[in-house]
Amino acid sequence: MMLRRGFVTLLLFSGLLSAGERPLVSAVEAIGMTVSDLDRSVAFYTQVLQFEKVSETEVDGDAYEHLAGVFGLRARIARLKLGDEVLELTEFLAPRGRPAPEDARSNDLWFQHVAIIVSDMDAAYRRLREYKVQHASSGPQTLPDWNPNAGGIRAFYFRDPDNHPLEVLWFPQGKGAAKWHEASGRLFLGIDHTAIVISDTEASLRFYRDSLGMKVAGESENYGPEQERLNNVFGARLRITALRAASGPGIEFLEYLSPRDGRPYPPEEKANDLIHWQTKFSGPSVAQAAQSLRNGQARFVSTGAVELPDGKAGFHKAVLVRDPDGHAVEIVEH
Questions:
Q1: DSSP for 230-274?
Q2: 233-273: per-residue pLDDT in tens?
Q3: 210 and 293 in contact (C-beta within 8 Å)?
Q4: Which architecture characterizes domain 27-99+274-333 according to CATH?
Q5: What is this structure's pTM?
C-alpha cells in the first residue's frame, strides 16, 4: 500500500548523481509483465479491471534479442491504460519461458505487483468475487489507525490468470494523491505504484534514489494481524519506503524485517519467464544512463544501450538492467 505523499530532499550519493546533474530517469512510463496467453490476459484486465487496450504490436529480430537477453525471440506486446497509467503485457511466442512457481509467497524477492486504486473497496471486492479471482489475501484489510501513514487505507491482494499478484487499494481522505479523490464515476481509477520486495532498503535507495534520481516520498513500518492477512505472511513486519520520479506511478520498497525467509530472485530468470516484471522508465539519454549504471556496476540484461530502428516498441533506444535484488529496470529514450 502506498504511503502519504510528502517529498523529502534528494540525498546525493558520492560517485553517482552530483549536484546539478539531471536524474537518469524522468518518469515511470509503464509497468510490464510477461504473460502466457496475451488474449486471455487482455480480456482479464479489460473486462474485470476495466483497463483500456490502446495498442498491440509484434516484435522480433536482433535488436530485441539484445535488449531482452533472449535469443530467437518473437513477442506480442499489448499496452493497456487505466486512468493516466500504462500496463504492458508481453507474450513470448518463441521461446516460451518457464511458469511461475505455484508456491510463490509475498515475501519472496521476485515479488512485484501493481496497486490499482478503487473508488469503493466493497464494490471492487464484489466484482472480483463475481469473476472468481484467486485470493492472495483472506479479504480486504483496513490498516489500523495507530499507524499514521497507513491508518484507514483498505487493501486486498489477488492474482491474475498467470498467478501475478495484484492489489486493489482505497485511500481515505487525506491520504494518497488528490486525483484519487476526484469524482469520476469509475470504480477502477489507475495505478498508484508498483511494489517490489527487497532485501536491504539502503542498497535499493542507492540504486533508485542515488543512481536513477528518484525521490523518497514516504516511509512507514507496518505490522499486525491486518498486515499479515493482507500479505498472507504470518508474522509479517515490513519497512516500507515509497519513491517517485517526476511523473508516473511510484515504486514502493517492501523490506520484510520478519520473517526473513523469502527466497532470492532466481539467477537464471529471463524476460520470457512468467515471474518476469519490468519497470519502464523514460530518460533524457539512454547512453548516459547505460554508462552511469555500468560505472556503478549494475547487472546488465541487455548488451548495453540498444538501438531499435523499427519503432515498433514506441521508443528508439533502451537499456535493461537489474536492481540489487534482481528486479528488471528498463530505461528508454524516445
A1: HHT-TT-EEEEEEEE-SBS-EEEEEEEEE---PPPPPTT--TTST
A2: 999 999 999 999 999 999 999 999 999 999 999 999 999 99
A3: no
A4: Roll (3.10)
A5: 0.93
